[in-house]
Amino acid sequence: MNLARSIAWRYLKRPTDKLVSAVGIVSVLGLIIGVMALVISMALMTGYRDDLQKKLLGANAEVFLYAVDGNIADTPETLRTIRQTSGVAAASPVIFQHGLVSSESFVTGAQVMLKGIEPARATRSPFLLKIVGTGKSFQTREGLPGITLGKHLALRLGVDVGSPLMVTVPTEQSGNVLPQTASFTVTNVFDSGFYEFDAGWLFLDLGEAQRMTGSPASANLVEIELKPEANIDHVIAAVASRTGHRYAVTDWRQMNGQLFTLLKLQQLVLFIVIGLIVFVSTFNIVSTLIMTIHEKRKEIGMLASMGAERRLITRIFVWYGAMVGLIGTGAGIALGTIICAVITKYRLISFPPEIAEVYFVSSIPFITSPRDLSIIAVFSVGVSFLATLLPALRASRLNPIDALRHE
């Protein structure tokens, strides 16, 4: 058995002085609270970033190809070329168009973004299935043109499933821009948790969108889904080369680069700020060690007089501080992980529409990643260990004669 560790454990488990015991408990609690706060804050930022990325990719794709000056003229041929590219799992034509939507109770109209997609894509994406609906089709049971919209937009327009909607989009005819209006029936009201979709987007069948915009059998965007093992940069270069560099090719990172860079920076700043709580809590460990050393002067003197080396005494109090760090870190990580799981399960952090509009999402999951927990554990235990060194070295220099003289 490790002698230094066993002595340190006895000092920690059975302090003889009540004040030392109280200070020791406070030092452990302070470290627990600091680590717990760090776990929760990192889980908040990780969950927000991952949830935002998942929702962005769920309704869109990793790579986008589009024509700078309008529609993709040779859409079928372009789709065949893209689908034959290495690393591409699927390529889907899409119609994007700004429009105006009105209902019987909201005749003034609201500006929206229309997205025409192939409903069959819902079979490959749970997120799109939530948008399209369980029927996996935009059409009504009677075969009439249907449309889906988010709960916030539905509430604003005062509509529900089965309600009629009028959609107007600008179309170009003979060099003139004219409004084109069509009537649809609401076939699904979805709650994607992504405020931008839920409050300002309409989803409809690609064929209906093509008829409205006057661009049959063509699209103004191709969404490219990748195979799991594919390298996104290699796929972008291959698609651009195979299509003769006639179209712009980008990916979700470039379209949302500033947002995710800012989120990573915020997470780093938050780690530093909350990490100061852990750093400050180590002062309590120093205080506990100093008081313990003062309390155990007689024992230290006896050990030294019996021939104990200074290294042994140093290791005793290093082990003491390390145990405090390990206990506080372990308990803090465990409590933080449990709290994050409860918050996520019961969606305790949810936003009303006016706040969701700012943060893009209606609720935030708290995700504790093994990487974040490992970094927090190493940081907390490392700081606790460093805090023990100076008191432990001072204990090893204690003169045994002076220690025993005062007893």
List keywords for this structure.
407 residues, alpha+beta, 2 domains, six-stranded mixed beta barrel, 15 helices
The chain-level mean pLDDT equals 89
Number of strands: 9
Strand order of the largest sheet: 2-3-7-4-6-5
The figure for the number of domains is: 2
Shape: elongated
Query: Given the structure, what is the number of helices?
Result: 15
Measured distance between first and last alpha carbons: 30 Å
Proportion of β residues? 15-25%
Specify the biggest β-sheet.
6 strands, mixed, barrel
Class by helix and strand content?
alpha+beta
DSSP helix fraction: 55-70%
C-alpha-based Rg, rounded: 32 Å
Q: Helix and strand succession?
A: HHEHEEHEHEEHEHEHEHHHHHHH
List unreliable stretches of 5+ residues. none
General description of the model:
There is one protein chain. With 407 residues, this protein is an alpha+beta fold. 56% of the residues lie in helices and 19% in strands. A six-stranded mixed beta barrel has the order 2-3-7-4-6-5, surrounded by four helices.
Note the topology:
Layout: H1 3-13, H2 18-59, E1 63-66, H3 75-83, E2 88-103, E3 106-117, H4 126-132, E4 146-150, H5 151-157, E5 164-173, E6 176-190, H6 195-200, E7 201-205, H7 206-213, E8 221-226, H8 232-242, E9 248-251, H9 252-255, H10 257-295, H11 297-305, H12 310-345, H13 353-359, H14 370-396, H15 400-405
Parallel strand pairs: 3-7, 4-6
Antiparallel strand pairs: 1-8, 1-9, 2-3, 2-5, 2-8, 4-7, 5-6
Helix pairs in contact: 1-12, 2-10, 2-12, 2-14, 10-12, 10-14, 12-14
